[in-house]
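Quick one:
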Amino acid sequence: MSQRRVVITGVGAVNPLGLTVQEYWDGLIHGRSGIRKITLFDASQMPCQIAGEVPDFDPNNYMDRKTARRMPRSSQLALAAARQAIEDAGLAYPMTEPERAGVLVGTAVGGLDTLNAAGEILRTKGYDRMPPLFLPSGIPNVPAFLIAQEFQCLGPNNTTSTACAAGTHAVGEGSEWIRRGAADVVIAGGAEAIVMELVVGAFSVMRALPVDFNDQPELASRPFDAKRQGFVLSEGAAMLVLEELEHAKARGAHIYAEVLGHASSSDGYDLAALQPEGLGPSRAMRWAIENAGIQPKDVNYINAHGTSTPLNDKTETLAIKRVFGEAAYDVAISSTKSMVGHAMGASGALEAIACALAIQNGIIPPTINYENPDPECDLFYTPNQAMRRKVNVAISNSFGLGGQNACLV
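Output:
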């Protein structure tokens, strides 16, 4: 029996460029930055005072007030993106075949804002003043629960928490559920909302954030540029409706792209630093391409992890060269994080949507703020302006803290 094929039939996203996929894509192809001064807390004493916040987000537009009040921001964003994706796919909800519908969501830390608030109440007012659902509403699997409950997806359900690679892992593993026959429809993606004092302070201590762009936030995220200083923290959520091909065709669904393959690997090297020769990322790319049944020469576009940190961009460039050889200089590469920042567990899902839309529209989003070439980053990063090019195959890279790498084809 031939392997079941997996296609993308719906997409949804809330992110620093807007509250819809159309706003997201329009911002990407026009090279707009969603990076601004932080408003979610007073960052005036921080060395880095900028981030990618989701603008004008009102959870009450996506759920009732009682639910919104009890849910951390990451879960609110996840439900909003899932609702968009399901409506875009033209699926009825509650699901018509609930046991054939699954949910897989990636997140780095889940509802850290809720847990942080609970700790503050405990310290200042005592344990008996904490709302009883503070703890369960803050755990990482709440977005997957909330989506399953809201849309009655009663099939496979899971949460992946592999830091910056979580969203990519979720889409890849969700496609496997369909391939092996465990589901016909999977809502897969990522969500993160940790633009908060604790996190910005922690990354500042690590010297991972840029510090010289507080007055020009839109210039701060500059992947592969010689003057890059660090990644720009952001938030958001992106969900994809994955569907078995014949199931999608039978209901006349619009198909954005096919998920051809995926893979993951481990650096086994360091908690925070990438293995300097790019061995782990190159394994993930090579295995994903093999899993897809294609050759490196078939790849037209790479959506890079491209975080704008000195080490990541150099190492990812080296990893791409390991996999593609001389052809690395011919493939179009870009980092959409130059426009939306690094949304941690949501990034891979946002970037999977960017790849699907690049295939659909024949447009490759740019890497903005690319002004100063770096001799160690000497590939074609689609600098500053989108490029029209037919894209048959795209890959998306995600490399997480802890050396956990993922690649989606």
